[in-house]
Amino acid sequence: MSDLSVWLAQLEKSQREYLLKYQPKDFVEELREFDRYYRWMTDFGFIEAKLDLLGVQSLIEDYDLARISDVLLAQEQRSTLKLIQGAIRKSAHVLERDKTQLVEHLWGRLLDFEVPEIQGLLEQGRQSKDSPWLRPLRANLERANEGALRTLTDHTNSVTGVAIAPDGKTAISGSWDKTLKVWDIHSGTLLRTLTGHTDWVTAVAIAPNGKTAVSGSADYTLKVWDINSGTFLKTLTGHTREVFAVAIASDGKTAVSASKDNTLKLWDIDNGNLLRTFSDYTDLIKAFAIAPDGKTALFASRDHTLRVWEIDNENEFKTLIGNNYGVKAVAIAPDGKTAVSASWARHLKVWDIDSGTLLKTLCCHTELVEAFAIAPDGKTVVSASRDHTLKVWDMNSGKEIRTLTGHTEWVLAVAIASNGKTAVSASKDYTLKVWDIDSRREIRTFTDHTESVTAVAIAPDGKTAISASEDYTLKVWDMDSRSELTTLTGHTSLVLAVAIAPDGLIAVSGSRDNILKVWDLSIHKEITTFSHTSSVNAVAIAPDGLTAVLASIDKTLKVCDLLTGTFLRTLTGHTSGVKAVAIAPDGLTAVSGSRDNSLKVWDLLSGTQLTTFIGHTGYVTAVAIAPNDKIAVSASWDKTLKVWDLDKGIKLKTLTGHTDDVTAVAIAPNSLIAISASSDNTLKVWDLVSYKEVASFSGEYGFNCCAIALDGVSVVAGDESGRVHFMRLEGMGDLGGV
Fold first, then answer.
1. I need a labelling partner for 61 at 20 to 30 A (CA). Which of 129, 258, 530, 624 fits?
2. Residue 291: pLDDT band with limits 50, 70, 90
3. Integer Cα distance of 507 and 521 in angstroms
4. 185 CB-near residues (< 8 Å, 6+ apart)
């Protein structure tokens, strides 16, 4: 503990609370003691105490004091405080629900910064831990100066639409969870949830006065809301199919909606009356936009055209041709003269509305563009894509300015605030992210895999680790330096499995290309290949290092001789693809897990099925066997782990706590400690003696795999972003004793 935290703890409660609330501000505005302010703001004890008492936003705002122009701090001090604030703000959505993650997240975001005060802060945090935790050994989260400013989490399904109020302070999001949510953009606070739709919310727009919102839904209706109170005002009915787009005219009195019933409808927002229906379309209208003057609208149709209309007299006066893929999004620039469209392609097109001329093409995302927004000054466009990124474009030059990364799924919507600097994106990953599109914030700096990490293994000597990835490669890592030694190439599809032999000299990988490869780790070369008839989902090597067992999508397991390159026997019995396999330490028994929701225990010498374990209600994704050969732990898509007695053939316990698919499990070689990985972005540590969760680490992406070294404390995990995490399990004491 720091001296400051000790001193604060000794104070009377009322005095301590007063100091935590007001002392930083008093240092700056009243006492003008800037050095003391700096010392408090870089002290872990103060940070932890303030977070615990007042929450994350109050703590973040204390760092804003350093931005006051007459605060006499050196530039290096300002930069240090900005980094600490950035780390806390980026982790706000995690800390709001679990304040115990403070130390882990400061380490994960700040470890790379060789600043004495930051390194001192991290060490204070480390010393404060009095319970088990997973300590990052290298920065394993987005650094404080990278990527999005903050993440907004509360939706329980894909976020399909977002709009920002004219004052730039409030955003409203719509989701497949049938709700809309109102957010304070600056603090990330969820202000209220709007309920009433009976199906997916597909679109949302905010009136120019910032007081009214209109939402569209797959329930065929639009709803009008009072933003400040969250009150539902009225329902607009008339469409006979799903409503997928809505816009409000500049006068704030009329709204236009588009539906899968091939119509557009013009509504009076105040009284809810339907004013006009545009139905002269033989094909689906995919998108539309209203010009700033409220007199002109631009409609995009599935017939690959853009049509310019005069709203008042319903006369079509121009059709823009030049998009061969079908337009799915369109917007009109603030000058009313330029339009941008996105089609079922990876680029955007910029048009001159008056002449109908295609001015330029903004190219390119690596997957389809889902949505985009034009900044109020008309100079910048931000596009959202299925490639999980947003791109910022210069409208004049047509050049890409930067790419924004952080979402783990398709980005479905984006809006830009009135200041032209802040953007909010919505994603299929259930989150929104707030971005500073005007700054030179760095993009992510790690250079691990370019696609999801699917499997990891650690060599017996603990010096080397190997990761497998959907980018078709394996990477070999030095465990001491956490640096890449080499990349192993040769597979022609997703690499799904990897195992290292007990002697540490060879590794085996399995892939969706139906190939098992054997690698010589001393020279990092492929030495043998096994051809399978189906995808190799998992592989385990026996303790003798001579035999391996492959689990395949073809519902079988195969036992192979690694020396001769031949298959010895096939194990059949599962009724769906086999996703997992583990071999007991005695080498005599194997346990497999399958998409048929079962586990099976096998005699490896005879190939006989010994036992079937039934109990999971989802795919079994992983299995591990304890060092005593007596228990196995399975992981499943049903969000649980189950502990099984291999001798008695019974279930001992179900471990709950994950909130999404459990993707992997590993058991320490020298204790009854297990680590599980989940799509809920967490790693969890379990004591298999008490069956209790004893530690957890919250990441930024779903975890797909994990492994524990023979020392029982070194952990390697891989996530959906392609990052490989190196961590150390600390503070375990006597937990998990065999």
1. 129
2. confident
3. 7
4. 164, 168, 169, 170, 171, 417, 422, 424, 434
